[in-house]
Design goal:
Helix content is 25%, strand content 35%. The radius of gyration is 15 Å and the shape is globular.
Length: 178
């Protein structure tokens, strides 16, 4: 799996290795051709700081990758994916930070306790993406997917939020194996 580094945490890379994945971390400005040469089974666009709208090079890369390779967007990476699918990322007044933040899984209806650290909310009303998780507190989008294009995006801190029922890394690995 190729991890595009927008500020990736080493704990994520360690967790990917624990899952048996060969995680290859590449800089944010890696070209599509360079990524193709690595022949990844999937691509993760990492979390990190900043305004996702300013990452035009990454948004363009996601547009080129749509439907060609499974994608997982984490935090900032999810926001970039959302923008590439005509969603909007809007600066929140306070953001979501901390542990023990309740999120509703739209498909199961279950409430999951999560860790989060993001300052941009997502508006997916004009996108092709399906909302999978919403904040119980303010109904903000916390997760989405595009089944046909094999895309998952989440605002959650996945290493800190490892719910056995809904483990995002496990879902992504299953998608890569298909």
């Amino acid at each position: 799996v190729v991890v595009i580094d927008l500020g990736v945490k080493t704990t994520l890379v360690k967790k990917l290795n624990e899952y048996g994945l060969n995680a290859i971390v590449v800089p944010y400005n890696t070209t599509l051709e360079q990524i193709k040469r690595l022949k990844p089974n999937g691509i993760i666009i990492s979390n990190g700081p900043g305004n996702p709208s300013n990452l035009t090079q990454i948004i363009s890369l996601v547009n080129d990758l749509k439907g060609k390779c499974p994608l997982l967007g984490l935090g900032l990476g999810a926001q970039v994916i959302a923008i590439s699918y005509n969603g909007k990322a809007n600066k929140m007044r306070y953001g979501h930070q901390g542990a023990n933040i309740p999120v509703r899984n739209v498909n199961s209806g279950k409430i999951e306790i999560t860790s989060q650290n993001h300052f941009y909310g997502l508006d997916l009303s004009n996108s092709e993406l399906n909302v999978t998780h919403v904040s119980v507190i303010d109904n903000d989008v916390e997760g989405f997917e595009h089944v046909k294009h094999k895309v998952i995006g989440t605002q959650l801190l996945v290493v800190e939020t490892l719910n056995e029922d809904e483990n995002i890394l496990n879902r992504f690995i299953k998608i890569m194996k298909k």
